[in-house]
Design brief:
Elements: E1 8-15, H1 18-28, E2 32-38, H2 41-46, E3 56-61, E4 69-74, E5 88-96, H3 102-105, E6 112-118, E7 127-133, E8 139-145, E9 161-171, H4 174-185, E10 188-196, H5 198-203, E11 211-219, E12 222-229, E13 248-255, E14 270-271, E15 281-286, E16 292-297
Parallel strand pairs: 1-4, 5-8, 9-12, 13-16
Antiparallel strand pairs: 1-13, 2-3, 3-4, 5-9, 6-7, 7-8, 10-11, 11-12, 14-15, 15-16
């Protein structure tokens, strides 16, 4: 099967208690556990996170069998991390079958609902979205597709929670991010939207009608990255030395040719085993918002 350039293969989040998080993702979200283990030192080095070596991790996949993984890595919580206030990966948008059913399914001791299901303002009524924080304060957007827009293919869920189909990047310089993902990943600047973004307005104590502009990066009709223009009050993500950023830590995208990306890799490309990598070459770079982007060569 050909995997298109830019396909989201995995979203990695950090959690303080892996066993608890796995139970939450399996028992509550309905994902399937496919692999557990410890982060090998070469993989930690590829992320420039040497202190993450030997950290326990779990790899989960939607019950639909979609080739997209949720990776949870255990590391201590960071006292200064406040979701939706720092640059880097801000959220993973997942396709769900019934957005309105999820608020009652999410126990408060494991999940914190940040936004009840609704159609985002100023956007076409193409989906219903809600937002929740997971056990590691990672942000998940649970989106139910209503209608397909004219220029975009949105995945319809085949399990209660299905694949990650958009990754959200919090940026200080939206234009620089647009140019970077276009130059190195071949993604196209598809559209801009300006709207009252409740997650950002609450986080920064803006008025409810304060407007934020976001940009969509696509490969053809496939959405990949949403770049949100964050206010100057945002800051770099606080993190433990040598560890992954807390919350939404790292995104893994498919690329047809690592060498063609023209990126400064944190470590030379390597081949890794397991369901996510399948022996393919991978390497990681730092994006313009300080985000960790892992590229997996799919040919």
């Amino acid at each position: 099967m050909t995997i298109a350039q830019g396909t989201i293969l995995a979203g990695t989040s950090t959690v303080p208690d892996l066993d608890q998080a796995v139970r939450a993702y399996c028992d509550i979200l309905g994902l399937d556990l496919v692999e557990t283990g410890r982060i090998a030192p070469p993989q930690a080095d590829s992320w420039d996170c040497p202190a993450t070596a030997q950290a326990a991790y779990a790899l989960l996949r939607p019950a639909s069998g979609a080739p997209c993984w949720f990776r949870l890595v255990e590391q201590p919580a960071h006292a200064d991390f406040i979701p939706t206030t720092s640059y880097g990966w801000a959220a993973f948008e997942c396709a769900v079958a019934d957005a309105h059913a999820w608020p009652e399914r999410l126990p408060g001791e494991l999940f914190e609902v940040r936004g009840l299901p609704r159609t985002p303002g100023n956007l076409e009524p193409t989906f219903i979205a809600m937002q929740t924080l997971g056990p590691g304060r990672e942000m998940l957007y649970l989106n139910q597709v209503l209608n397909q827009p004219a220029d975009t293919d949105l995945p319809e869920a085949r399990s209660p929670i299905d694949r990650i189909f958009i990754v959200v990047l919090a940026a200080s310089d939206r234009g620089a991010c647009i140019a970077w993902y276009g130059r190195h990943l071949g993604l196209a600047h598809a559209a801009d939207h300006t709207l009252a973004y409740s997650m950002i307005n609450i986080a920064f104590a803006h008025p409810a009608d304060h407007q934020t502009t976001l940009s969509m990066m696509h490969n053809g009709r496939m959405p990949v990255v949403e770049i949100d223009g964050y206010p100057d009050l945002a800051r770099p993500r606080p993190r433990h030395p040598g560890m992954l950023p807390p919350g939404n830590a790292l995104v893994s995208l498919a690329v047809s040719d690592l060498d063609a990306c023209g990126l400064d890799w944190l470590a030379p490309p390597q081949r890794l085993a397991g369901p996510l990598y399948d022996g393919r070459r991978s390497a990681t770079a730092i994006g313009p918002a300080g985000e960790l982007l892992e590229c997996i060569e799919t040919g």
